[in-house]
Amino acid sequence: MSNKSPYQILGIREDASFEEIQAAKAALLKSLAHSQEEQEQVEQAYDMILMQRLRLRQEGKIPVPDRIRYAERAFEAEPEHPPSLVRSRISLPLWAQNLLDTPSTQDLVWPGVILLFLMLWAAFYPASETGPSLQLQLALAFMASIYFLFRKERRLFRSILLALLGMVGGWIVASALLAVVGGPQYPEVLQLLITFVVMWAVTAFLR
Predict the structure, then answer these.
(1) Which of 32, 112, 153, 192 would disulfide-bridge 38, Cβ 3.0–4.6 Å?
(2) Burial of 138 per CB tally in 10 Å (0-12, 13-18, 19+)
């Protein structure tokens, strides 16, 4: 076995690809597991082939494949656009990045379903002496907002503050809109519906 060339030892052609050389080496090492001496000869033959290939490549006698030749150039050209994305993400202050959320489908749908139910309840069954009070409907929306906010970060006090912000902010926005547009037959119901929309936005897009 020692009188053979490295290619004969590995059982490959002299123009074999690097993948074929590796595969031949792995197969021989596995089949010669009983003989450490023969395994060493395989390792030596493999090293000799690699050294020979490296020397010939440096001398220009073996062409470098395009996927290797241009790999570094492609890698360097790739980050041309991503930095703009990075800059857009870090353009916001840190407190804003920690406050804003990219909601999942569940974060959008489930709060929307609950608040939509409360909106329909308030719209079709406005408060009366025998019906539910607007305060009850608003309290249920407030608790739902706390629950969905708490699911994101597991921070109760922060969730309460954000839910309170959504409720108070929504009420102020609704009051301002009604003052400009003019009140319908049930102004408190419309005010509650607008408040629910603002609470949904806070619940979905803040954390």
Answers:
(1) 32
(2) buried
**Length of the chain in residues, anyone?**
207
Which DSSP string corresponds to 116-177? HHHHHHHHHS---SSS--HHHHHHHHHHHHHHHHHHHH--HHHHHHHHHHHHHHHHHHHHHH
State the average pLDDT for the chain. Answer: 78
Alpha carbon distance 131, 169 (integer Å): 26
CA distance 75 to 89: 23
Cα distance between residue 198 and residue 173, in whole Å: 8
Q: Rounded to whole angstroms, how far apart are CA atoms 170 and 192?
A: 8
Other CB atoms within a 10 A radius of the CB of residue 22 amount to 13
Under a CB-based contact definition with an 8 Å cutoff, are residues 64 and 57 in contact?
yes
Q: How far apart are the first and last CA of the chain?
A: 70
pTM of the entire predicted model: 0.49
- Dihedral angle sign, alpha carbons of residues 82, 88, 93, 98: negative
Computed from CA positions of residues 47, 51, 56, 62, in that sequence, does the dihedral angle turn out positive or negative?
positive
b (16+ CB within 10 A) / e for 108-131? eebbbebbeebbebbeeebbeeee
More confident residue, 20 or 60: 20
Residue-wise pLDDT tens digits, 24-43: 888 888 888 888 888 888 88
